[in-house]
Amino acid sequence: MSNTTTSKLTQTYRVIRLLLHIISGLVQSAFYPHVSPPVQKRMAKKWSADLLAILCIRLRFSGALPVAKNQPVMLVANHVSWLDIYSLITVCPARFVAKSEIRDWPLFGWLSRNVGTLFIERAKRRDITRINRDIGNALTLGDWVAIFPEGTTGDGSILQHFHASLLQSAVAVEALLHPVAIRYYDASGEVSKAAVYVSVSLLGSLRRILQQPWINVELIFPDPVNSNGKNRRELARITEQAIANALSLPIPHKVPGKSSYPPIE
Q1: Confidence check: pLDDT of 261 > 80
Q2: Which fold has domain 8-247?
Q3: CA 20 to 30 Å from 204, out of 18, 91, 226, 265?
Q4: What are phi and psi of 37, to 5 degrees?
Q5: In this predicted structure, what is the pLDDT of residue 259?
Q6: What are the angstrom distances between the C-alpha of 212 and each of 20, 22, 56, 193?
């Protein structure tokens, strides 16, 4: 983590702005389900972009971004932080698959529920069938859906094994998969440890982020992968390789397909 931190006064100012922004989001989320999909996307994109600005998260992206087509679109990304979600929404408004515990997060949980997050019960293996059905329905209706097949957050120094189970929905509807490689840098140009969401509470994570002058997040979009004619394990390995190449990270050494249940983070 960078040794450079912001002053207490600056941190307090950011906290006040953050609280006001969350309140604004709560108000907007009450209307969100009742407006058209294009308006929903604009609302989500703007709110997420403003959140990143308040937290001094500088976003840049490159590569083959998804475009609106007749074919369903699924985003497949590595997972470092809860900031991943808002970074992706700023560029590609999508619905996310998340662990059910997020519904109980203060404020952010209510926001997540109101904007159509798809929740999975990690303790129930049978819930995989239900969540794949819900993802498939969302994709068929034209929603973009984003998943984190590592199943948990990492510190960004390694890529964890990609589980294949949630990719069954992409196979079922023949979705176009867009791999997304995500990485964070701090003000000194080093890999940001403040952005990492591992072994820390949400409030603890926010505290770390607010202490930084700024954090850079980069989204890299390798070429999309057509799921037609491929099974879920093939898709997991292909997207895993694409993201590993983009981040210059080694592929995790694990027998493919051993675990079919991702503990969603």
Answers
A1: no
A2: Cobalt-precorrin-4 Transmethylase; domain 1 (3.40.1010)
A3: 91
A4: -55, -40
A5: 35
A6: 20, 20, 8, 10
- Split at pLDDT 50, 70, 90, the class of 3 is low
CB burial string 148-178: b at 16+ within 10 A, e below: bbbbbbbebeebbbbbbbbbbbbbbbebbbb
Alpha-carbon distance of 251 to 30, in angstroms, equals 42
Q: How far is CA 245 from CA 100, 180, 191, 227, 229, in A?
A: 31, 11, 17, 20, 23
Q: At 253, is the pLDDT very low, low, confident or very high (cuts 50, 70, 90)?
A: low
User: Do 98 and 79 contact (CB within 8 A), yes or no?
Assistant: no
Domain limits, the chain:
8-247
Q: Can you tell me the distance from the alpha carbon of 204 to that of 68, in angstroms, rounded to the nearest whole number? A: 37
Give me the torsion for CA of 170, 89, 246, 200, rounded to 10°.
-100
Say if residues 151 and 263 touch (Cβ distance below 8 Å). yes
Residue 184 and residue 81 in contact, taking contact as beta carbons nearer than 8 Å = yes
Write out the two tokens for 181.
């490689």
The residue type of 260 is S
Q: Which of 165, 157, 149 is nearest to 185 (CA)?
A: 157
